[in-house]
């Protein structure tokens, strides 16, 4: 089984960390291919960033289809380009917010999302709503932490995230934590050890969900909304995205 983990930003140090965390939970015999697109923003912290990340993400999905990849994880908590990726892919495609929220709803009664910047809170609530997770989500909280600070040696990012998780438990009436950024993937075990509650990392959750879907021989439905996009000319800078019949 080959699973492609796509970090939609172009910061390779984060991609390497994401790949290592996915490999740590993958079963023996599962090959994890962790990549960043060749183009796109270095971090994703706004709707604008998400939009710019999607073309590179879709290039990686298309390349995965040519390479015989069995399933995909989109390793950004905004789940950018998820439905477009499912249109291109035959195997399952899972977003890390989608995976983490669903797993959290199975092991606790209420969860809080702890994310990076306050400006992304609205998107996290939007995803909770469309995934049917709003009734389980007690709160979405931000550390006011730029994503790339997670990659800086000597940064106090870990302490700030732990502090916000602690406040979530004390103030939100929650019993588990969802980490709201793929760049936090290596902090899960530490935060669990400090706070003593389940902490869900979407990269690990997404990896195991895709493994399960592939093992069950469940593929993306190609009837209706997620059928392959209709071929049509694409002009200008995006001409290479033109699909053949």
TrEMBL record:
Q: Which organism is it from?
A: Variovorax guangxiensis
Member of which family? Belongs to the HyuE racemase family.
- EC number(s) given by UniProt: 5.1.99.5
Q: Provide a Gene Ontology MF annotation, just one.
A: amino-acid racemase activity
According to the lineage, what is the superkingdom? Bacteria
Alphabetized Gene3D superfamilies for the sequence: 3.40.50.12500
Protein keywords = Isomerase
Q: InterPro entries attached here?
A: Asp/Glu/hydantoin_racemase (IPR015942), Hydantoin_racemase-like (IPR052186), Iso_Racemase_Enz_sf (IPR053714)
Q: What chemistry does it catalyse, as a reaction equation?
A: D-5-isobutylhydantoin = L-5-isobutylhydantoin; a D-5-monosubstituted hydantoin = a L-5-monosubstituted hydantoin; D-5-benzylhydantoin = L-5-benzylhydantoin
Name listed for the protein in its UniProt record: Hydantoin racemase
């Amino acid at each position: 089984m080959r699973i492609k983990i796509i970090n939609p930003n172009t910061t390779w140090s984060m991609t390497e960390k994401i790949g290592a965390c996915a490999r740590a939970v993958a079963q023996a015999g599962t090959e994890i291919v962790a990549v960043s697109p060749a183009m796109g923003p270095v971090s994703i912290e706004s709707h604008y960033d998400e939009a710019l990340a999607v073309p590179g993400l879709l290039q990686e999905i298309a390349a995965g289809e040519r390479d015989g990849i069995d399933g995909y994880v989109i390793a950004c908590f905004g789940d950018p380009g998820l439905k477009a990726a499912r249109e291109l892919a035959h195997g399952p495609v899972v977003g890390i917010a989608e995976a983490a929220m669903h797993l959290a709803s199975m092991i606790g009664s209420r969860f809080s999302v702890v994310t990076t910047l306050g400006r992304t809170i609205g998107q996290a609530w939007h995803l909770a709503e469309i995934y049917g997770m709003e009734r389980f989500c007690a709160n979405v909280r931000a550390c006011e932490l730029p994503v790339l600070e997670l990659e800086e040696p000597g940064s106090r990012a870990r302490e700030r995230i732990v502090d916000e998780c602690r406040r979530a438990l004390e103030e939100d009436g929650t019993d588990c934590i969802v980490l709201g950024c793929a760049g936090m993937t290596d902090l899960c075990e530490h935060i669990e050890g400090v706070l003593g509650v389940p902490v869900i990392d979407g990269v690990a959750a997404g990896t195991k969900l895709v493994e399960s879907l592939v093992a069950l021989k469940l593929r993306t439905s190609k009837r209706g909304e997620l059928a392959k996009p209709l071929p049509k000319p694409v002009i200008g800078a995006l001409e290479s995205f033109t699909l053949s019949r």
